[in-house]
Amino acid sequence: MAKFWDRLNTFLAYMSALILVFVTLTISYTIFCRLVGLRAPIWVNQFSEYGLLFITFLGTAWLLSLERHTSVTVVMDHLPPRARAVAKQIHMIAGAVVCAILCWFTFSSAWDHHVRGILDVNTVDIPKAWILAVIPFGFLLLTLQFLILLRKYRIAWLDMKRPDGPPPNSLAEAMLAHSRGKGEV
Length: 185
Description:
single chain; 185 residues; mainly alpha; two-stranded antiparallel ribbon; 7 helices; elongated
């Protein structure tokens, strides 16, 4: 299951990158058209906006899985390893709860737009639910990723409490080494 999850996150990150390339190329083409006096495609701004939305919600779980998201390292780096493991667990629980709530509310909104048949009236008319659907999907992915990281830090915390010490090459051992200035977590 872990391999599937990693592959899904990586695939969605690549999709985000492809969307970013598409947005960049279409905007560049529009600028080129205006410079040489050609008529620029009118749909570019609309789809660039959608692209930015999709990039954000398809790529965030991957970013979180790498633990490259914003965090307060000034405080975390000065905590003892066990306290750091507890703080990370609290962080992961809070993140999962917030993302689950946002997933529910955004799903309700997207579903309401679908049921009522609301269109995004723009250059190209598109059902608004199709655009909004990526938001609860992204929050679902984030919720699951926070829970995966919670499990990881829970295991590390339990390993630190073992009387014989943490197992070799474990996250707990890395956190203990980091607190002694011998590694990075």
